[in-house]
Specification:
CATH class of the largest domain: Mainly Alpha
Number of helices: 18
Number of domains: 2
CATH topology of the largest domain: Serine Threonine Protein Phosphatase 5, Tetratricopeptide repeat
Strand content: under 5%
Structural class: mainly alpha
Largest sheet: 3 strands, antiparallel
Distance between the termini: 59 Å
Radius of gyration: 26 Å
Strand order of the largest sheet: 1-3-2
Shape: elongated
Amino acid sequence: MSAARRAAIEEREYDPRREERRKATRVALPDDVDARMLDDETRRELRSLSKETAELVARHLVVTGHLIDDEPEQALAHARAARALAGRIGVVRQAVGLAAYAAGEWNEALSELRAARRITGRPEHLAVFADCERALGRPERALAYGDDPEVTSLTQDERVELVIVLAGARRDMGQLDAAVLALQEPARRTTAQRPWAARLWYAYADALLVAGREQEARDWFGRTADVDDEGQTDAADRVLVLDGVVLDDLGEDDEEVGEVMDDAALAAYVAQGFVPVGQAAVSSQAAAPLEAEAHPEVQAAAELGAAETADPAPVAEVPAEDAPQRPEGQRPEGLSKPFSGEVAAAEPAAASRPAAALTPTFAAPQDQDAATQSEQEGDGDELTLFS
C-alpha cells in the first residue's frame, strides 16, 4: 500500500459501521473448503470482484450452503462475512437473506431478499417474503404478495409454495374456510408424481383439520403419507392420531437407548404392552390392528418377552395427545439443498406461521370421485395458480 493511500485511510473519520464490517469478515473458514465447490453460475456473478476477494466470498458461500439446514446461525455468520466483502452482488445478498430466514431473523431476511430482488430483478422468493411477514405477525402484508405483478413469472413449484403460505395467512386471520378454499383446487389437481405433492397435500389436510373437517383431513393425511417417501412431513403420525392410536413420546434419551437395544431388552419392552412404531411407542391395546398378521415379528418378540419376563412391572397408559401442531413462528423444513449459485428454494410453513389480499379464483369444490378421476387423468400437468 502506498504511503499516500495509507495516509488517506488514517485521515478518515471513524465509522463504527466500517469496524462492524471488518469484524464480519473475521469468520474462520475450514481449510478443506475450496472456491471451486461453488457452481459456475454463481462464480460468474463474482467476477466483478478481485480474484482474491472472489475466492474468499465463494468459500463463505459454500460453507453457508453446507450449514444452513443444521447450523443456521453459523451459516448466517458466513453469509454476513460474504456480504461484508461483496455487498453489491445480488447472489450474496440472496444468500444472506435465506440464511437469516433459516435462522429466524425475519427482519434481516426481508431486508436482504428485497435488496437481492432490486439487484437481480428476480422474484423467485416471494413465498419467503410472505412467510417472514407472517412470522412478524403481519398476515395482511403477507397476503399482498398474492397480488404481486410478477407472480405470473414464478415457476409452478414457486407458485405452490406461495399459495401454501397465503393459505396459512388466512388461518392466522381466523379465515379458516378461506384457507381451505385457497388450497382445495390446487391439491385436487396435483398428481402424486409432482415433487410438491406431499407438501401441498399436507397443508390442505392440516387446513381441513383446523376447519373441523376431520374425516376429509384424515383422507388427505393418508394420501400425503403414501407419497412422502423423503419424510418431509409427519403425515403418517397424524393419521395414527386421527385413528385414535395413542403415541407415547419416548424422549431423546429413550430414543438413543432404543438405537442400541438388544433383542432381549426389546422383547421385554414389547412384553410390557407396547410395540415400536417409528420413533414412538404405541400402546398394544390401541394398536391392536397393527399387531399379529400385520407385524408377525413383533408378535414373536412379545411371546419371547413373556417367557423371559415372568412378572413385568405395570406401565401406566399415557393419554392421547392432541394432533401435533407446528408452533407459531417455526421455520419450515428449510432450504432443500446446499447453496450453489441459485440458492435452493426455501420451503415456507404450510400453515404454522403467519398472512391477505389474495382472492382465490379456483373452481367450486368437486366431489371426491371427480377429484380422484382428475388426478388419474393427469390434470396436474396443467395446474395453474393465480391465473
